[in-house]
Design a protein that fits this description.
Layout: H1 2-16, H2 22-33, H3 36-39, E1 46-48, E2 62-64, E3 70-73, E4 90-93, E5 105-107, E6 116-121, E7 128-135, E8 147-157, E9 168-178, E10 186-190, E11 193-198, E12 200-206, E13 215-219, E14 226-232, E15 241-249, E16 277-283, E17 291-299, E18 305-309, H4 318-338
Antiparallel strand pairs: 1-18, 2-3, 4-5, 4-6, 6-7, 7-15, 8-9, 8-16, 9-12, 10-11, 11-14, 12-13, 14-15, 16-17, 17-18
C-alpha cells in the first residue's frame, strides 16, 4: 500500500538524522519485515478528543461544503476535513475467507494486512457516541434476509421502561439486517460511494437480566439509535466496501462532566454510560460473518473517548526476526570499522 511505504520512508529519514548506525538498522528492518516499525506491534490505545466535524450517519465518509451540507463522499485522510478525519481509528485483521479459523488480531494503522478500521468518538453536539466500522472484507452486494453486521455493547435502560421495567444495564446486540421484500441495492450513487437507504432494518436484542425478560428484534429507534451502511472507498482501499455507522445516545451521571450537555443526563430512552465497557462487532464478508473488532471503550469527562483493542496483537514473523538478526551482523561489523578510535 502506498500509505505504508510513505511511513517506511519517514521512519528511515528519522533514523538518518540520529546516528551513523541508524541507516543500516533501518534498512535491515525493512529488509526483514517490509516495514517493521508499522507491523511489529499494535496500538495500545487511542484517546480521541471531541471531533470538530459534524457526523452524519449515512454509511460513508462525508464531504461537506462551507454551509455544512453533505456534497459527496471522500477518504478520511487526517487534515482533509472529511468526516471522521480528525478521529484516530483502531486497526484490526479480521479472519476473512471460507474456512478461515485465524483469530481476530489488532494491528497498527498502515499494516497492509489490516482489513478493519474502528472509529469512535463524539461530534460537536456531544449527545451521541458515534461509531464507524470500515470493513474491506465485504465488497459483494447483500441479498434479502442477509445479516450485514452486528454490534454488542452495554446500554442503560431507565426504570419503568416498557422493555425493562426494572431498568439498569443490559447487554445489547444491535443487528443490521436486510429485509426480505427487495433486493439490494435500493440506493443512489453519491460520488464514489453507494449509499443504501433501504430496505434494511436495525434490530436490538438482549438476554434476560435484572429480573426483566429477554427481548428480541426491537427497532433501534426505540433506544434513540440511528444507523446506516453503504459501500465506500477508505484509507484501507480505493475499492468500495462495507462501511457501517451507528449513533448511540449517551446516559451521563449527574455531575460527571461540565462539558457534556445536560440533555445527556438521564435521557428518556436510556443510553450508553461513560463507564469503561467492552464492545464487539461482527460483519458479513463475501463468504461468512467473522468478527471485525473488539475493543474497550471509555468516555472521559472532557468528552474525549478512549479505545483500546481487546484482542491479541500481531507480532513480527519469526522468519523476519531471524533475517533481522542475520542482517545485523554485517551492519555491526561495518559500524565498528567506521567508529573513530579513542585516543
Amino acid at each position: 500500500m502506498q500509505r505504508t511505504s510513505v511511513t517506511c520512508r519517514r521512519s528511515i529519514h528519522r533514523h538518518n538524522s540520529k546516528s551513523a548506525l541508524a541507516p543500516y538498522l533501518a534498512a535491515t528492518a525493512v529488509l526483514a519485515t517490509g516495514c517493521l516499525s508499522n507491523n511489529a506491534s499494535a496500538q495500545t490505545g487511542v484517546t480521541n478528543p471531541v471531533s470538530g466535524i459534524n457526523i452524519t450517519v449515512d454509511g460513508k465518509f462525508d464531504v461537506y461544503d462551507k454551509n455544512g451540507n453533505v456534497t459527496g463522499a471522500g477518504i478520511p485522510t487526517p487534515g482533509s476535513g472529511v468526516e471522521w478525519s480528525d478521529i484516530t481509528p483502531l486497526a484490526f485483521i479480521s479472519p476473512v475467507g471460507p474456512g478461515n479459523t485465524n483469530p481476530l488480531l489488532a494491528t497498527n494503522i498502515g499494516d497492509p494486512n489490516a482489513n478493519t478500521l474502528l472509529y469512535a468518538g463524539l461530534d460537536p453536539g456531544k449527545d451521541d457516541l458515534y461509531l464507524a466500522y470500515d470493513f474491506s472484507g465485504r465488497t459483494n452486494p447483500f441479498l434479502p434476509g442477509d445479516t450485514i453486521a452486528s454490534i454488542q455493547f452495554p446500554f442503560v435502560l431507565p426504570t419503568g421502561s416498557p422493555l425493562a421495567p426494572n431498568g439498569g444495564s443490559r447487554d445489547l446486540t444491535v443487528t443490521f439486517k436486510m429485509n426480505n421484500q427487495k433486493f439490494f441495492p435500493a440506493s443512489t450513487l453519491n460520488g464514489n460511494s453507494i449509499v443504501v437507504f433501504q430496505p434494511f432494518s436495525i434490530l436490538v436484542s438482549a438476554p434476560a437480566a435484572n429480573g426483566d425478560p429477554l427481548f428480541n428484534n426491537v427497532d433501534a429507534s426505540q433506544f434513540g439509535m440511528q444507523g446506516a451502511f453503504g459501500f465506500s472507498p477508505s484509507l484501507l482501499t480505493n475499492t468500495p466496501h462495507l462501511v457501517v455507522e451507528l449513533a448511540v445516545p449517551l446516559d451521563i451521571p449527574a455531575g460527571f462532566s461540565t462539558v457534556l450537555p445536560p440533555t445527556d443526563v438521564n435521557p428518556p430512552f436510556g443510553g450508553y454510560s461513560p463507564a469503561p465497557a467492552f464492545w464487539n462487532a461482527f460483519a458479513t464478508d463475501n463468504s461468512g460473518d467473522p468478527p471485525i473488532s473488539s475493543a474497550f471503550f471509555q468516555i472521559n469527562p472532557d468528552g474525549s473517548t478512549f479505545l483500546r483493542p481487546n484482542v491479541p496483537t500481531v507480532t513480527p514473523e519469526p522468519g523476519g526476526l531471524a533475517l533481522l538478526g542475520v542482517g545485523l551482523l554485517p551492519v555491526l561489523a561495518q559500524w565498528r570499522r567506521r567508529r573513530p578510535m579513542n585516543r
